[in-house]
What we know:
The longest helix is centred in the first third of the chain and has 22 residues, at 2-23. This protein is mainly α. Helix content is 75%, strand content 0%. It starts with a helix and ends in a 5-residue tail after the last helix.
Amino acid sequence: MAAKSDQKIAEGLEHLRLADKYLKTSLFKWKPDQDGAAAEYLKAATAFRNAKALDQAKESYIKVGELQKAMNAYLF
């Protein structure tokens, strides 16, 4: 059972890494991809919630909300 939750936490951390990658800018990418980052943060939050890592899930959901607010894209 612990191995499954460790696997889900690793999956969540990978999604966090990808979300941070979407938010970075570079020479050819001038604007961050907030929509892609929000999707990755949402996947990370789901993985953390499944692993019972609720603090990490909460932080990921907060980042999703902040990005959706910045994009003026609400779920309701």
